[in-house]
Amino acid sequence: MTTNEPAQEPRNPQAPLTERSLKVIVADDQATVREPLAAVLDMTEDIDVVAAAADGTEVLAAVAATPVDVVLMDLRMPVMDGTEATRRLSEDHPGTAVVVLTTFADDDSILAALSAGARGYLTKNAGRQDIVRAIRAAAAGQSVLDQEVQNRLLATVRTRPPADAQPLPPDLTRREREVLTLIGQGLPNQAIAEKLFISEATVKTHINNLFAKAGIQDRADAVRRAITAGLA
């Protein structure tokens, strides 16, 4: 956000995330939601809200002008909605992650946003800490789904399994299959670590190896693969 403070030395966008603030855009067509949320997030130590956008075209223009780590994206916006903006960001700015923050948690909205490339999906009853955690996770290449969204995704995939589902590779280790099973059950990394009596860092290593071997794109895709493989 713009302030009257003295100009600081420009951050290096290539620096590790631990050494710089995350550059974030808040996109929502309602100013009464957009501005307070941007202000609150901007007070978080490691988050720098660089722009607030009222529609998808403003998001794309802002990202084209300044490299951004994460866009916090509403779905229903005029001119260009959040799903289309997410799709274009995924194609033109793959280094920018999208976390959806919306009032809509219906099956079609969830699947459309995740298919467009959203890395996280929260409903607007999420608290500030939930939003901050999702932004940090998305910037680190992880996915965060609201529990309600996770449950609906599980139900949707069970009733409408993808026609192009691929079998799991035979070289998955026993632990990698266990991790995939727990992802399919909707457990976050911390809960998986507790369940398997391993560290969260070890869980992340297993997930990275699992995703690479199975060609899994994100956590939503992992849920789908776990269900279609009969693991969840």
UniProtKB/TrEMBL annotation:
Keywords: DNA-binding, Phosphoprotein, Transcription, Transcription regulation. Residues 23-139 form the Response regulatory domain. The modification 4-aspartylphosphate is found at residue 74. Gene3D superfamilies: 3.40.50.2300. Residues 165-230 form the HTH luxR-type domain. The lineage of its organism: Bacteria, Bacillati, Actinomycetota, Actinomycetes, Kitasatosporales. CDD domains: LuxR_C_like (cd06170), REC_NarL-like (cd17535). GO terms for molecular function: DNA binding. GO terms for biological process: phosphorelay signal transduction system; regulation of DNA-templated transcription. It comes from the Bacteria. InterPro entries: CheY-like_superfamily, NreC/VraR/RcsB-like_REC, Sig_transdc_resp-reg_receiver, Tscrpt_reg_LuxR_C, WalR-like. Transmembrane segments: none annotated. This is DNA-binding NarL/FixJ family response regulator. The keyword DNA-binding applies.
